[in-house]
Design the sequence.
């Protein structure tokens, strides 16, 4: 049987036939962009060193940034980790899988160092998007899948975002707009507690309630190395981003910088801003709005981060990273 090769980038419908074609391409060492409930991922089989190298090359991704492995069953997750780690996977999976939770655990022998960045841990999640699950099954293997964007760019939440970033190298399965719109919560599972390495829509309170375990943030930089998206630059549009803490401060920024400014604000405030571009500041909309700012060629983005964002740590985290507070890049899904 002849190998599958794609000579131009295509956005294709997720029909049964196309999912089968994508599965065949993955089995032969190609990569495919797939939808998940969080963001679109750039997927390759975990046992294909060629596919893993291609993921890093296409994205321009630093080699010391680990990849998230996507599984379709808990049994697939068990095969990737030490036997002593399986009970915590079972506990978390029962509460949150399929869904936007990535679990970092000690890896089983034999997993590619390209996936783990040479660490003794692996990050695993089971997406809830039905197309992603079908592709994993069709590929016959768990899939490594960081976000399907060029490094440093806002993560893609629609197929066209992938097309805009990655040129003519891969096929994209179009699952429509992502339901959630930001990447998964990442936790490091230890013997007696959970460390939140990256905030997401699954909160610390939800994790503690479901597991009875203590949930905390890591101390120091070393634990964060085990999570994708904790170093380098990420989420950034072309325009400079300025954070305003009050409506008045945002209005003053618009006055100073002029009409070619875009204000991102919680929807209840958008009517306050006249004479400039505006966009919705929600977890679902953030990345799409940052990409729209590029299309509009605005000079500056003013993001209204009032007290309400304190209750949305994942959204606040992404805004701060996009504004250059910290140096995150290349998140997973």
Sequence:
């Amino acid at each position: 049987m002849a190998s599958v090769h794609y000579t131009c980038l295509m956005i294709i419908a997720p029909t049964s036939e196309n999912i089968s074609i994508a599965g065949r391409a993955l089995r032969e060492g190609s990569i495919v962009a797939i939808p998940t409930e969080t963001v679109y991922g750039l997927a390759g089989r975990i046992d294909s060193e060629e596919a893993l190298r291609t993921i890093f090359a296409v994205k321009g991704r630093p080699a010391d940034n680990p990849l998230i492995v996507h599984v379709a069953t808990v049994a697939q997750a068990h095969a990737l980790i030490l036997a002593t780690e399986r009970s915590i996977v079972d506990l978390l999976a029962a509460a949150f899988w399929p869904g936007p939770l990535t679990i970092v655990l000690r890896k089983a022998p034999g997993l590619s160092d390209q996936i783990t960045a040479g660490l003794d841990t692996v990050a695993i999640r089971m997406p809830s998007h039905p197309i992603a699950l079908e592709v994993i099954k069709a590929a016959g293997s768990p899939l490594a899948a960081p976000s399907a964007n060029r490094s440093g760019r806002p993560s893609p939440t629609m197929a066209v975002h992938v097309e805009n970033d990655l040129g003519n190298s891969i096929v994209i399965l179009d699952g429509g707009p992502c339901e959630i719109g930001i990447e998964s919560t990442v936790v490091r599972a230890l013997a007696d507690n959970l460390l939140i390495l990256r905030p997401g829509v699954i909160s610390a309170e939800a994790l503690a309630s479901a597991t009875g375990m203590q949930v905390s943030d890591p101390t120091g930089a070393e634990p964060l190395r085990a999570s994708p998206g904790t170093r380098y630059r990420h989420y950034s549009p072309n325009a400079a981003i300025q954070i305003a803490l009050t409506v008045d401060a945002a209005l003053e920024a618009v006055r100073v910088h002029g009409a070619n400014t875009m204000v991102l604000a919680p929807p209840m405030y958008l009517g306050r801003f006249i004479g400039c571009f505006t966009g919705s500041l929600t977890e679902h909309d953030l990345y799409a709005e940052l990409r729209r700012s590029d299309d509009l060629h605005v000079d500056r983005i003013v993001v209204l981060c009032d007290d309400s964002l304190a209750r949305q740590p994942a959204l606040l985290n992404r805004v701060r990273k996009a504004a250059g507070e910290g140096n995150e890049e290349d998140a997973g899904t």
